[in-house]
Amino acid sequence: MELSDNLHSFVLHFGEMGSRWGINRTVGQILALLVIHEEPLNADQIGTALSISRGNVSMGLKELQSWRLIKPQHIPGDRKDYFIAAGDVWTLALTVMEERRKREVDPTITLLRDLLLKDTNSTKEEYARQKIRDIHDLLEMITDWSGELQSMEPASLKRLMKLGSGVSKVLDVKDKFLGKT
């Protein structure tokens, strides 16, 4: 399987961006390849297309499955495992958001909650405790907000996102009207 120069450039760039988003470069490339490829691909095809070893492909596929970003697709009469992206780009984005929340935000909220529950009578720590409470409250709010986003249909989510700049303009006008600027 050979990629055109444009598609190869996309896959390479996606791998570089993936490393900035918290996934390994090769894993990002495998995901990009599966997203843009119409047919399911097996490990050999992925390795050939990306010029990476079978072992790297195998580890990358396991990582993507643990993130719930790909799923196996069986082809009748073929014993090899084939893989496809686990949904459209909106579904994948929401899945990444949910997985990052589980892996990064939830443990932090738990730690902050535990710290806040510990009774300290020290006035020296009050400023720090308030900052910890502020961080906790912000993360809780973000978690609630992301939960709302997770429950939305992609079409509704698109409409909401398109409102973003319009909402800020409306709030700016309101603030000017009320003399808050």
UniProtKB/TrEMBL annotation:
Keywords: DNA-binding, Transcription, Transcription regulation. The keyword DNA-binding applies. It holds the Pfam family MarR_2. It comes from the Bacteria. Gene3D superfamilies: Winged helix-like DNA-binding domain superfamily/Winged helix DNA-binding domain (1.10.10.10). One of its GO terms (molecular function) is DNA binding. InterPro entries: ArsR-like_HTH, HTH-GbsR_regulator, HTH_MarR-typ, MJ1563, WH-like_DNA-bd_sf, WH_DNA-bd_sf. Residues 21-80 form the HTH marR-type domain. This is HTH-type transcriptional regulator. The keyword ATP-binding does not apply. Coiled coil: none annotated. Belongs to the GbsR family. It comes from Marinibactrum halimedae.
